Amino acid sequence: MHIPTAPTATMEIEPFYEALKRADTPRPDYDISRWLYVPPVYTEYRYILGTRGANPLICVGINPSTAAPDDLDNTLKSVERISKFNGYDSFIMFNVYPQRATNPDDMESEINDALSRENMLAFEYALSVSRSPSVWAAWGTIVEKRDYLTHCVENMIAIGKKYGAEWYSSGKLSKAGHPHHPLYLKKDSPLDPFDIEGYLNVIR
After folding, report:
1. Which of 16, 53, 67, 102 is most buried as measured by Cβ atoms within 10 A of its Cβ?
2. Inter-residue contact 21 to 39 (CB < 8 Å)
């Protein structure tokens, strides 16, 4: 269980590319040839957690919880299984907002613009890893928890266009049209094309 200790605006935030550089430096606590973990230590925010490969599936949730290399939570275990089933050699877990909070109700009420900007740089990096990036929208109805979350999603959609991202969902969409969260999906759940442009009409 992770409960935020303070608003992220009161913390010193490590820029994404500085954190990425540290993540590429060998560590005693996990194998960096297998894991991509940015920042490479457990802290109040997380930009990326995933495995390294040539063809990753980028899964996008709302915000991170406690997962870390060699210590995946149930959501990340589901993401890993479904990625493999759908033919990807790795996965990258990204989040609409990077503040750790096991209960989304504990997320900060106001966006930290500086943290969100660094998070979008992390998304661009994730997209750049493969020639034809595949993005699995998996944030569920939790996107309605904070007004700023839909703004972040809009930014992600715009960035995805620059990289020619193909968007997918898995499982039944909610009544409002939000993509399904991965936690309770079967391990052999297929990915379905997701109309990300049409989704803008849902969140605006």
Report:
1. 16
2. no
